[in-house]
Protein: HTH cro/C1-type domain-containing protein
Organism: Amycolatopsis sulphurea
Amino acid sequence: MEKVYAGARVRQLREDRSLSQSELARALGISPSYVNQLEHNGRPLTLAVLLKLTGQFGVDAEFFAAQDTARLVADVREVFADDTLDGAVSPGAVDELTTKLPDVARMVVALHRRYRESVENIAALTAEQGMDQTAAQQPHEQVRDWFYTRNNHVAALDRSAEELSAHLRLRPGEVRSGLITALQDRHGVRVVSEPLGTGRHEFDGRRKVLRLAPALRPGQAAFRLASELAMLESGDEITRLAERAGFGDETARRLLRIGLANYYAGALVLPYRVFLGAAERLRYDVTLLSGEFGVGFETVCHRLSTLQRRGARGVPFSFVRVDRAGNISKRQSATGFHFSRVGGSCPLWIVYEAFAAPGRILTQIAELPDGKKYFWLARTVTGSTGGHGEPGKTFAIGLGCELRHAVRLVYSDGLALGAGAAVTPIGMGCKVCERPACPQRAFPAIGRPLRVDEHASGVLPYPPAP
């Protein structure tokens, strides 16, 4: 007989019958210490004891069979991987918990799910009321909101980068070589091309060597060069901005420094007035702008969302990047468009439809519950982290503006933008969406009673009460 450790089952059997370990020992004709060892998986369940248990308590031998805990282990590991919880639990401890105390493990999973639901509901309700959520935010969320409150425009860095670009005489599409020369001449930094595994670049400040992954496209390489040049040229200003942000978390300050260096890099590779002039001339054609400046679709879209300099504003855009699962990994806005923090985004939003047409630019006129209309364009972008067989990555990029600006975009040509426009009603996430008649609703709206009829059904999920 294969050794069977069934401590949790033996304990459950004893406690269900309100027996002490001594009483169970007397019933089985064994010592209390033996029972204690059985319950703590110190000794396996022997055939003789198994027969006594089944005969004494009328349970089937299958009751003590080893259980498949793979799913439970995965659920518990997900609980302890929650980045909102302090501390860490080793995989061994998780395995021990699920093996020895499966009922406790299930309770932990259930409690965590209720906790997450409560956090999401509270966040949704406070967001609806316009209340501050800073204390509950994660570091990356604090950084994202720092840029959001500034309309994704940092004037001091933008002007500094533009001046440096002019001083270095960087030419669109030929920036990479100019940045390599600038790093060498101004800071004594040598640039080399070396394999870095999954990394894109590494800078050794002591040796003054900047290593770039050979697989980087020219535009990607230029952006990485520019981000390190940003730290060398404007590191003090970047540090001041990060310190003045008022973050209590060092991780948030470091992430903001990275975000500011990347912002400077975008402004250096795509200098403000030169880029804005090209955008207006080409009517914000992202594909043509990508070709003219030698950078990717995502980089152009992100830069377009930052053109809010006083006296020289471009179209105010919202920028978003999502994956197939609906996770929003980047979101910035120079408009009043509100990205939902909870409950996911609207499945009717064109950004998600882009995955069904890889590489094509799709457009949509979307109307929010408050009646405000936006013009959106979306397209997928793909990337690879290695050679054949290595997992790649695919995102959908969305760029949107208020409908009144759409006439300035080449993508609105031939579309009805007035009273006859084909409008798609969308919301800001099911949990806070006010639309009662949406057939795509995934969750009921928080705080709104439902109409529940046991003897009727309809096409609308979670219909609201009259």
